[in-house]
Amino acid sequence: MPTQSTAKKVLIVDDEVEICSILKEFFESEGYVAAIAHNGLEGIEKTAVFQPDIVVMDIRMPEQDGITTLKELKNISLAPVIICSGLANQETAEKCLQLGAAEFIAKPVDLEELKALVEKHLTE
Fold first, then answer.
1. Using the 8-state DSSP alphabet, how is residue 62 labeled?
2. Domains defined for the chain, CATH in brackets
3. Which of 11, 13, 28, 91 has a 20 to 30 A CA-CA distance from 100?
4. pLDDT (tens digit per residue) in 75-91
């Protein structure tokens, strides 16, 4: 398992507390350092401080939605963003990808699939 200083950092941005807890616990069990933000504005703030290697983010959130947050994140960070949303239609997925998301996957999320996508984008 990587040490704390070499472990990759994952920022989870989702307003659903249970999903955040599950994802944080999962990524930490896989050797990542994980942080949580519960809305887009908090996600922007955490990105500036935590400096994640990758971001896993929902679209529908209070304060600031994932689309607006994605646009802002692309201006302040090179970290790939994986959109994880229950709003899984083709139009939304295409918009997210056009705005710079690395991936778009539908909820409910398969943890192994999400892990594979995270690893894929961290090795590119």
1. S
2. 9-118 (3.40.50.2300)
3. 28
4. 999 999 999 998 778 89
User: Which residue do the tokens 């943890």 mark?
Assistant: 111
Nearest alpha-carbon partner for 76 in 103, 122, 37, 41:
41
Helix and strand counts by DSSP (H, E) for the chain: 5, 5
Alpha carbon separation from 114 to 11, 30, 100 (Å, rounded): 13, 12, 18
Q: How far is CA 99 from CA 2, 20, 102, 109, 120, in A?
A: 32, 24, 9, 22, 19
* pLDDT, tens digit (0-9, with 9 covering 90-100), for 88-118: 788 989 999 999 999 999 999 999 999 999 9
Q: Which two tokens stand for residue 70?
A: 């994605």
Q: Which residues contact 49 (CB under 8 A, 6 or more apart)?
A: none
Q: How far is CA 120 from CA 2, 16, 18, 85, 110, in A?
A: 17, 25, 25, 19, 15
